[in-house]
Amino acid sequence: MITPLARLKEKISKNKSDAILISSVPNIIYLTGYSGFSKEEREAFLLITKNAQYILADGRYIGSAKTLIPDFKLIEISSKNSVKETLKNLKTKHKIKKLGFEGNNITFSEHKKLLTRFDDSNHQSLESLRSIKSSEEILKIKKACRLGDKTFDYILKKIKLGVSEKELAFEIEFFIKKHGADISFRPIVAFGKNSAIPHHQPSYKRLTTKDKFVLLDFGVKLNNYCSDMTRTVFFGKPTSEQKKMYETVLAAQQKVIESLHDISIYDAMAKNVDKVARDYILSKGYETIPHSVGHGIGIDVHEAPHLSPKSKDILKEGMVFSIEPGIYIPGFGGVRIEDLVVLEKTNPRLLTTSTRDLIIL
Amino acid sequence: MITPLARLKEKISKNKSDAILISSVPNIIYLTGYSGFSKEEREAFLLITKNAQYILADGRYIGSAKTLIPDFKLIEISSKNSVKETLKNLKTKHKIKKLGFEGNNITFSEHKKLLTRFDDSNHQSLESLRSIKSSEEILKIKKACRLGDKTFDYILKKIKLGVSEKELAFEIEFFIKKHGADISFRPIVAFGKNSAIPHHQPSYKRLTTKDKFVLLDFGVKLNNYCSDMTRTVFFGKPTSEQKKMYETVLAAQQKVIESLHDISIYDAMAKNVDKVARDYILSKGYETIPHSVGHGIGIDVHEAPHLSPKSKDILKEGMVFSIEPGIYIPGFGGVRIEDLVVLEKTNPRLLTTSTRDLIIL
Lengths: 361, 361
Known about the structure:
Helix content of chain A is 34%, strand content 23%. The first copy, chain A, has helices at residues 4-14, 25-32, 59-68, 83-93, 108-115, 135-156, 165-178, 240-262, 270-283, and strands at 19-22, 44-49, 53-58, 73-77, 98-101, 120-123, 182-183, 188-191, 213-218, 220-222, 225-226, 229-234, 268-269, 294-296, 303-307, 314-315, 320-323, 326-329, 333-336, 339-343, 348-350. At the A-B interface, helix 3, helix 5 and helix 7 of A face helix 3, helix 5 and helix 7 of B.
């Protein structure tokens, strides 16, 4: 198996660079396995050349980094030995002229301070670096999905008259954390017409018999890997219109899954897969889906590939992504169903396994 | 009272800019009061000229933004109306030549895509924008501190033989969230020699009678404003060496607080305040504090002013910051005591009020 580090070094050679500076936390986790750095503040960089790899971090991390990241040489950053100074030294030592960096992550100020001294530094698109998952990674995502499925079972029992969106969101988070995991994003819980807002933030709204729609969108982060799932259940018997919405979304999702069987996955344009769900929902007289039909997932809850109308991504074996069509009628309500699949050699395999049958509570 | 928006507009005039592009979520919250945007993904920009202000966000936010941000004109970003296109139109409309932006927040790629077309765009240091707090803001921080103090009372009862660091960290988070607030950062819980690592991540380590040190560092986020506090308590009677460490840290903190009484606060260099604690701890034969003695706090848990040896910040009335000296002896243990103060006209006022007396459990 090609290690993430070897994969990156291939990229360095392919781009005819001398080295690459890694700054984004997900890529640091991917390349080192170490997840102790904050996402809020810049705490570390990796500098990777064709035949050496360094981690630059301050004194707080030296102890843990030494034990946990054995393949990297550690350079302690301090007021006496700044990142700038360190990069200057490494530039000389490794004769680095052409340096790649993550333009989507490095700030304007960091670029100015750290990178202008390099003869030739350029933005590298590393978006695809993590898009094909190893079997180990797929197993980690599967485990996160399993806890997600368990969470769904648990939360169904908590959906009762008078409960608030915030309370359910809290219960989801509580259950996940009690099981030693983290949430991969803030859970979305939306009752009634709030379910028509795709990114609704849980409010103090309490569940009534009139609401009917209960949309739950949440994910687990376990061993650095994320899950993501959405279910829309009904509190009381849905009207025929509500039922039709549900069945249309479910059929749209099923059509996407089937389309991944039929086509040769080696040249499946992600945008065409998006189109399968989008067109089906349009054909049933609903508005187009106001978001993309799916997104890759792994260390980040949103990463490549992107299943959207403008995507240029090609779906390949080993990719893991969501399929999440939805119908949203402002002032009335919305339905979204979201599952994760992994593309295997001959077919897609669902990683989330909670029932997709219409549930009436 | 000068509103945050008026304060920013003064800055535009002072810098002889025509407008400023705001991208960081804390500054968006500060200027609009709206906190619905993700910190993980770029979801909004503000464009502020001397006499107009716009918010650029996608369709998901249009509904809530309209009601919640009345003073801003809303521009919906979509695949048909990109941020780039919108900025181009606003440039023409308001004859913007000189545009300020947040160089510490805008990425290299965003700068290239969005800002190179402006005749003159330059990084604006907005670090000091939020450093002087209004009385309303101070009240919000005080309320967050009050819940922090309550959390400390609660967690003391949970410190028992065999409990793990992770369990206590979870209990802290659970208690804060149950009270309708959020954590301002992941709680640090460190037993025994782990307390010698200033940024220790809670582990599965269980408390034993040999550990003695129990270091707790946590904060509350309530109504967008953060608190932050640290206490080190003893599980069993401390040795005389441990007791001396505690007393030294407490005295160092007390000296800092007193120094804020003595000096005219209108020209108190933050680095001199840092020095008060640093020198005292050195004078008692310990190593220098491996972090800064304090940091401003508000919408962000770390913001200006910075109380560190290299800081150029001047402490002024209305600033709120932490005072958190510490002594760390690798392989043995550490003590840190952290409280928040607000600089009032004639003296500093503590916002955290949990006892700082040595606690033996």
